[in-house]
Amino acid sequence: MLSTGLLLGGLASLAAAQFPPPSEGVKVIKSKFHENVTISFKEPGLCESTPGVKSYAGHVHLPPGLLDDGSGEKQDYPVNTFFWFFEARHEPENAPLAIWLNGGPGGSSMIGLLGENGPCFIDDDSKSTIHNPWSWNNHVNMLYIDEPNQVGFSYDIPTNVTIYTGSEEAIIVPTNFSTETPQTNLTTRIGTLSSQKSSHTTNSTQQAAHALWHFAQTFFTEFPHYKPNDDRISMWAESYGGHYGPGFMRFFQQQNEKILNGTIDVEHAHYLHLDTLGIVNGYLDAVLQEEASIIFPFNNTYDIKVINKTVYDGLMHNFTREGGCRDQIIQCQKELVGIEKNALRAAREFPSKLCPKMEDACVMSGEMAFENSNSARFDISHPKNDPFPPPHYIGYLAQEKALGALASPVNFTMSSKTVALNFIATLDEIHGGFLDAVGYLLDSGVKVHMMYGDLDFACNWIGGEMSSLAIPYSRAEDFKKAGYTPLITSEGVGGLTRQFGNFSFTRVYQAGHMIPMYQPEAAYEIFMRALFNRDIPTGLLPVHDELSTVGPPDTWHVKQAPPEAPEPKCYILAPETCTPEIWEKVKSGKVTVKDYFVVEDEEVGDGEL
């Protein structure tokens, strides 16, 4: 595999400090169109502090068998997909709607909601909230979804578990608590999660798209608190969202076409008015972004040398040589074409049959070299044990108050190991076709806007730019001819943008993987200008088919000094924030912990939360 760190990062970050309380005040609506499909929800009263602005959290419940797709993939388990819907702060009845998805695969969208672009951030006590003036729900109805199944608060069958985070990767063990409750400590917790069965969730972007479309069919036709005058639906996706966003929107658009021509095989299917696809530091193409993962650690606009020239030359030779890593990825992508239609479950059971030469050819990779450095994957100016963006939301969602308000029968899972390993087994990361998906959407009239923070290694802007220039669509040559021009915000210049018509790519300055946390205004302005049909650089010009930015053909002339690096700060629910030395003391209980932060590392017993 090329970037298992992208897939597996943060898997130990599970918040299961206690069992969820009994659900109260939950409304349940039965679908008028599909037997045994229901929506359960309530007003949680959390996060949004603006008077009169409502939010609703709940689940869309899909029974076993609904997602059987006729290709041998059987859904013999329930799918209970969690959502948190926020009305726009201004005129929600006239506002469009945007879906937000984090990546992983297996990452919860609560990361984005509570740590990037939602109505609030979580304070460092992991209990209180901070109003976010740059929330994306200022003028847009926002829908945050935990997908696929077993991610975040989405679940199949609630299962009592014991969670051990003391090892390199979290270990989750289904446990019968009827006879005895295990002793807990700083690295051993108990709670209720999904079953952890790999056969009870999806294993590819294609499968996940199918499940999300059925969620959307139910939510957009039957959720009683979404009856807009503006029915436009957009999707913004981050990180592995470079697969999710294009893959999901392509499937939605294909279903729309079947609805229009009368070939859809689903009763009561509802046309979804697709407006905009937004990609935030997304992973679109393995060939291009693997090459970029070699370039970026050696040559970036901050002159940070994560690897030296000898390592760089060796990696690039291995990548470009005949029969090397690039050739094997391309060959693997050819072998994978169409596999989602007939052999995904077999691929999961017998992964060695898929692309055996690629793994050997790509052992020497930029990802592997980077892992041996002291830099953070999501921000090369930060230390490996990066405390930013702060993971306070994990502790917040472990509270009984939050669990009760959200009426969740399961504890929060920030990142699902089960889902990640499923996607690894089917080589979904390597699977091509997502550049084609973006091109198809553009030629279908869907707007596409890409933004990349220029400090991120994991899905860096070099690979993002390469991907943008490789998208095959009818105006591709016109897009390539457009130059870069400054992204203007009230704070000055926030980056550089290339735009032609409804398609843009922006390099955002001084931002890591999660742009809205680093540069909230720049991210907000890109989002708003995209949805309301204004040019991305200024927001002053209406977008038309021939709109083209003017300027230099690349952005390498703009170099900046790196920001000051933060000191590591160990948050025990996110072990990746802890240095190895401190984590060893956490495991042995020789620390004092306050609000999930290690405040002393002396030999003082088990500590307290």
From TrEMBL:
This enzyme's EC code(s): 3.4.16.-
Residues in the signal sequence: 1-17
MF-aspect GO terms: serine-type carboxypeptidase activity
Entry keyword Repressor: no
Gene Ontology cellular component annotations, sorted alphabetically: fungal-type vacuole; plasma membrane; side of membrane
Membrane topology: Lipid-anchor; GPI-anchor
Domain of life: Eukaryota
Protein localization: Cell membrane
Broad class of enzyme this protein falls into: hydrolase
Keyword annotations from UniProtKB, A to Z: Carboxypeptidase, Cell membrane, Glycoprotein, GPI-anchor, Hydrolase, Lipoprotein, Membrane, Protease, Signal, Virulence
Major localisation: membrane
Family indicated by similarity: Belongs to the peptidase S10 family.
Protein role: Extracellular serine carboxypeptidase that contributes to pathogenicity.
Stated name of the protein: Carboxypeptidase
UniProt source species: Metarhizium acridum (strain CQMa 102)
